[in-house]
Amino acid sequence: RAAIEVIGLRKRYGRTVALDGMSFTVLPGRVTGFVGPNGAGKSTTMRVILGLDAADEGSALVGGRPYRSLRAPLCQVGALLDAAALQPSRTARNHLLWLAHSQGLGARRVDAVIEQVGLGAVARRRAGGFSLGMRQRLGIAAALLGDPPVLILDEPVNGLDPEGVVWIRGLLRSLAAEGRAVLVSSHLMSEMQDMADHLVVAGRGRVVEDTSVADLIAAA
Ligand code: ADP
Ligand code: ADP
User: Fold this and answer.
1) What residue's CA is closest to ligand 2, atom 5?
2) Signal peptide span per the entry (predicted)?
């Protein structure tokens, strides 16, 4: 069964058409790469899936139902939308403790995700001094806190060094191997070919190609 269904989304911002019939499905147990140039509508689609933004037409379903961020148990979907938006004055660990508290989770879970994303050495430093790559790791830690079956990550590779790129590839693969659905966006096709099992290629607010990576490589 599909973990995420995006069905004919349309959205305008004033005269700008952000989504123009965006439709695709995300299955559990695989990494789905959402690729396309800047402005293709990837972030808007993710925000609509998460119930943070409304489409003019169409629908987005998570587990067969519209996702209501405020009412759904927070552990249902883990999301990284904008790593730069983390609270700068808190330490990384305190930031996660605060998020964990709102999900009814404790310090043990926080320390587990800190280790999982490799921030153990800097967890007690202020996040405001973090590089973008470290912020990405912190944002991913936040997304993983509730052990969610569905993960939505917007450009998580931005700011990561080559070692970080290898790390996130392994992380996403292991999360998918555990049966989770992972939707991950990037404006770089090359990055996603190495990371994803399935590719949804977007352009101008719609899907221009929807293919398994294996088929893509076989066709090349
Ligand atoms: P992507 O994530 O693929 O870069 P976006 O979903 O961010 O694409 O943007 C799609 C289009 O919608 C772009 O033309 C962008 O400028 C526009 N857009 C996105 N968010 C807003 C907003 N809050 N206000 C006005 N225009 C927006
Ligand atoms: P941006 O990503 O553009 O910085 P935000 O994500 O901070 O914007 O918030 C955009 C809108 O979504 C705001 O109206 C905010 O109240 C709402 N919002 C933010 N987080 C949630 C959430 N977890 N559940 C529901 N609505 C939210």
Assistant:
1) 52
2) none
Question: Which residue bears the tokens 């973090």?
Answer: 130
Q: Which ligand is nearest to the CA of 142?
A: 2
Q: What is the number of helices (H) and of strands (E) in the chain?
A: 7, 10
Residue of the CA atom closest to atom 15 of ligand 2: 52
| Tens of pLDDT, residues 57-99 | 999 999 998 887 655 555 689 999 986 677 778 999 999 999 9
Phi (first) and psi of residue 200, to 5 degrees: -110, 115
User: Distance (Å, rounded) from C-alpha 204 to C-alpha 108?
Assistant: 44
Q: How far is CA 192 from CA 99, 103, 145, in A?
A: 29, 31, 24
* Residue 20 binned pLDDT confidence (cut-offs 50, 70, 90): very high
Between the CA of 40 and the centroid of ligand 1 the distance, in Å, is: 8
DSSP 94-157: HHHHHHHHHTT--HHHHHHHHHHTT-GGGTTSBGGG--HHHHHHHHHHHHHTT--SEEEESSTT
Burial class (CB in 10 A: 0-12, 13-18, 19+), 36: buried
Strand 150-153 versus strand 4-13 pairing type = unpaired
Distance in angstroms (rounded) separating the CA atoms of residues 101 and 80: 18
**And the tokens for 98?**
């605060």
Do 47 and 35 meet the contact criterion of CB atoms below 8 Å apart? Answer: no
Note the pLDDT of residue 103: 85
CB 148, CB 72: distance < 8 Å: no
